[in-house]
Each structure stands twice: as structure tokens, then as C-alpha cells.
Amino acid sequence: MKYQKTVNHKVQCGICPRNCKLGPNQHGFCYVRSNGNGQIISDTYGYNTGLAIDPVEKKPMYHFYPESSVLSFGTLGCNMDCQFCQNWQTTKVKYPIEQCQAAPPEAIAHTAKMNGCKSVAFTYNDPVVFFEYAIETAKLCREKKINTIAVTSGYINPEPAKEFFKYMDGANIDLKGFSEEFYSKNCHAHLQPVLDTIKYAVTKTNCFVELTTMIIEGENDQYIEQECEWILNNLGDAVPLHFSAFFPRYNFKDRQPTKTETLIKAYNTAKKMGLKYVYTGNISDVETSATYCKNCGKPLIKRDGYQVIENNLENGKCKFCQTKLDGRF
């Protein structure tokens, strides 16, 4: 197994910044990577919690083959501990892998091809924790000319990140907030490794990246300007940024859902600071979920939820002024 070493008679997993040191039969923080006979084992390899065909807009990916379908799947476990996790039933609950659905990489690639899916999405839980399963699936998908999309929190070490993003055509990376205090308190993780992953994926790979920040009022909504400033200074103005609404889940069940006006405020702040492609999510608002031409400002793609209701692209360009839209079309 790659990305492991022996430390004081224990095996250290080097996939993510936790660098868990595991004794015999011990599981890592993610609970799905373990020490089996002195080797790091990916316990969920070939198992998932179910397959679904989704619109690509649901990932959310708005600049990656709009209106196409994706075959989505995930497994169990996570290498973060977000107290507000929206998928906690699979990321936090520990139950036997045998209760999951068996599907080797070749079966997933075949299923995607047979159902006319443009892409396969590794989602529902973080593909970093099923690193080998995701990569082997991605390799087989490429042979069938199927794209792959990683929906990830970006909590991965630099060396495995190189291999991971080599095989991903698109990614939505979850930037959970722009504060080390927020990450430490609410995710039991750190901000800087995520920023390093985002910058690497955007500037050093061919993977097309979009970002998502789920806004939780009183927790991360006060850092929007700092986040946008970092994006502009490190990534440029053309990386799509989604602000999504939080709903009470897991250990944040006592919190209130994000108000629409809070999302609109974040949207307006990002647009005012110069980001070209900003969106709101988990609410129905045609104006703030539309893609606008960065040159003439006319709407190129209008959406109602996950449905595209108007498309003014011609060969990936604005039909009004012929300016190319950033993304994959």
C-alpha cells in the first residue's frame, strides 16, 4: 500500500493530515482504513452505500458539462468530524461493511456507461478515505471516456493529492469556513491543509474545480470577505463559488437553518469583491443561481433548483458577445 510507513512498530497512514499510527487491527480516525498484518487496508474497497443517477448540478458543478447526468456513489467514514454533517448517517455511523452494496470499480464504470452518464461522482462521503477505490474506478472510467468528479473536503496530504487529482476531471471542494478556529472547533481539523489542496488542484492540475461553503450563521458567515480575498489572490476570479444553506443535522440539530438573506448577503459580497461566478444553493432563487457572462453580463445559464431552464451557450461561448465561459462544455 502506498503512503504508509512503520513508526515504533505501528503503521502510519499517510493519506491525510491526521497521519494515524495504527497498531494491529486498529482503525484510523476515519474508521475505514486499518492496520491489517502491517499494511494499511482500505476496508470499504469495492463497497458503497448505493448508486444514484443525478444531474451534475446537484454536486454542485455548474461549469462542468451542464445538464449532463452523473452516476453518484459513496462509502462509509470520513476523516473530518464536522458537527454539522449533512450526511452523518453514512459518515459517522459505524456498521459492518457487509451491509453495504458490493460494486467493484469495473461494475461502476460499466453501469455509468450503460446508463449514458457523462460522469461518475465520488460523493456522499469523502473519497479521500476510499482513495484506492476512487482512483481505480476513475482509471476504468477514463478508458470508457467517462469523466470523474470528486466531492471532497480536500483534507489530504500533498503527495497523495498529486495522484488523486491526476485522475479527477472535476472536483467540488468544500471550504467549510475561513477560520482555523472554525475548523478546529467544529470539524476537529485544520484549515491550512485544505487551502493547500485547493490551491494545488486549481493551479497545478487539469482538474476543473468549483468551491462550496455551507454558511452557518454565527459560525462562519463573518469570514466571507477574507475567504473571497484569499480566492482572488491565490486562485483568480474565475473559480465558481457556491454558498449553500445549512439545515440542522447531527450535533447542530439545535441551530436554525440559514436564512435566505444571509446567503444573498454572502453572494453580493463575493460579487462586489470581483468573483465572476458566485451562486447560492439549497434555496430556490433563479437570479443567484444563474451563470452570467463575465464580459457582457447577460445570463448564460438560468437554473431553477437543479434544473436548467435557459441555456445561452454556443460551443461554450456566450451567444451574445462570443466570450468563452470558464469551465468544461
Note the main attributes of this structure:
TIM Barrel; 25% strand; globular; 20 strands; 8-stranded mixed β-sheet; 2 domains; 329 residues; alpha/beta
Give the structure's gist in a few sentences:
The chain is of the alpha/beta class. The protein contains eight helices and 20 strands.
Model description:
- With 329 residues, this protein is an alpha/beta fold.
- The protein has two domains: 1-43, no CATH class; 48-287, Aldolase class I (TIM Barrel, Alpha-Beta Barrel), CATH 3.20.20.70.
- The protein contains eight helices and 20 strands.
- The strands form six sheets. The chain has an eight-stranded mixed β-sheet with strand order 7-8-10-11-12-13-14-15. Strands 1-2-3 form a three-stranded antiparallel β-sheet, with no helix packed on it. The chain has a three-stranded antiparallel β-sheet with strand order 16-17-18, with no helix packed on it.
- β4 and β5 form a beta hairpin.
- α2 crosses α3 and α7 packs parallel to α8.
- The longest helix has 14 residues, at 191-204.
- It is globular.
- The two termini are 36 Å apart.
- The model has no long low-confidence stretch (mean pLDDT 97).
Uncertain segments are none
**Order of SSEs, N→C?**
EEEEEEEEHEHEHEHEHHEHEHEEEEEE
How much beta, percentage-wise? 15-25%
The CATH architecture designation of the largest domain is Alpha-Beta Barrel
The oligomerization state is single chain
**Helical percent range?**
10-25%
Looking at the structure, what is the overall shape?
Answer: globular
Question: Structural class, please?
Answer: alpha/beta
Number of strands: 20
CATH topology of the largest domain: TIM Barrel
Biggest sheet, spatial arrangement of strands: 7-8-10-11-12-13-14-15
CATH homologous superfamily placement of the largest domain: Aldolase class I
**Number of helical elements:** 8
- Main sheet specs: 8 strands, mixed
Distance between the termini: 36 Å
